[in-house]
Write a structure and sequence with these properties.
- Helices cover about 35% and strands about 25% of the residues.
- The chain is of the alpha+beta class.
- The protein folds into 2 domains: about 150 residues, Regulatory protein AraC (Jelly Rolls, Sandwich); about 100 residues, Orthogonal Bundle (Arc Repressor Mutant, subunit A), CATH 1.10.10.60.
- Strands 1, 2, 3, 4, 5, 6, 7, 8, 9 and 10 form a 10-stranded mixed beta sheet that branches.
- Helix 1 packs across helix 2.
- It is globular.
- The protein starts with a strand and ends with a helix.
């Protein structure tokens, strides 16, 4: 097991064992764009991680896990303090697991499995005994886990470059976007439907939801969230959040 700090370098591909575990608590960390020859399961025990992909934005809220298949370029950005566990699996162990990046619910069983796996020694024998059973159960739990809508597809059209230049900035309303890029609402709608599968309004609402979860998970106040996401009041933000998640922000945090 490696306990990683912000100044350490770590390459899971440099080890021979079929499973490599990693544990860390970091603050305000940016991994930079990279990829692995192994599949990676990244689990946040506390805090929130934003994962940038080639044409998607992925959010990893607390107590959830992201499955990142081998060879997928990604960048993990952590704000404030993030306590996480990670396991890296060789290709032979990844057959039957999702082929695309996804965020999954972490069952009580999977949560219990990840701690001993992430903290196991690098020379652990994963083919026999206790750790073979842990690995088998873990693979089954990943495969059966419920996926959550924490991925936001990003449009590729060059006219929308400015829209994506600052990931933390609230996307403008449709009327303002029309003026910014010199395109009609119908044209913008066609672009987003073709490249994201959503209308612009749907895409903007999903962005707001994911950003709301990120802000809440990094301990921003309700008023700060409402202001940053363009709501006229705290109550309007609460109503928006509950209409999508079924919970108020306070209930979701608990």
């Amino acid at each position: 097991m490696a306990w990683l700090d912000a100044h350490s370098t770590f390459d899971a591909d440099s080890f021979a064992a079929p499973v490599i575990g990693l544990a860390s608590t970091m603050a305000d960390h940016d991994s930079g764009m990279h990829c692995h020859q192994r599949g990676q399961l990244l689990y946040t025990r506390q805090g929130c991680i934003r994962i940038d992909l080639a044409q998607q934005l992925c959010l990893l809220p607390p107590s959830r896990a992201a499955w990142i298949p081998a060879g997928v370029s990604h960048r993990a950005v952590m704000q404030r303090s993030v306590d996480y566990r990670s396991i890296y699996l060789v290709g032979d162990l990844c057959h039957g697991l999702p082929q695309q990046v996804c965020v999954i619910e972490v069952s009580p069983l999977l949560r219990a499995l990840l701690e001993p796996m992430a903290t196991a020694a690098f020379d652990t024998d994963w083919q026999t005994g206790r750790f073979a059973h842990l690995l088998g159960l873990c693979l089954s739990e990943i495969n059966d886990a419920v996926q959550q809508p924490m991925l936001l597809p990003l449009p590729r059209d060059k006219r929308l470059t400015s829209l994506l230049a600052v990931p933390d900035r609230l996307p403008p309303t449709l009327h303002v976007l029309e003026q910014q890029i010199g395109a009609s609402s119908r044209t913008i709608g066609r672009i987003f439907q073709r490249e994201t599968g959503m209308s612009y309004q749907q895409w903007r609402q999903q962005w707001r939801l994911m950003r709301a979860i990120e802000l809440l998970a990094t301990e921003r106040s309700l008023s700060y969230c409402a202001f940053a996401l363009g709501f006229a009041s705290d109550s309007a933000f609460i109503a928006f959040f509950k209409s999508i998640t079924g919970s108020t922000p306070g209930q979701w945090l608990k």
